[in-house]
Amino acid sequence: MLIAGITASTLVFAGACGNTEDNQAKQTKTEETVKQTFKTKTVNNIDMKIGDIKTTESVKKDKNMVSIAMSFLNNDSAPVGVGAGDFKIKSGDKTYDIFPQGNNFGDEFKPNEKLTGKAYFELPKNVKNGTLLYAPMGKEQASWSITIPEAK
Question: What is the pTM of this model?
Answer without folding.
Answer: 0.76
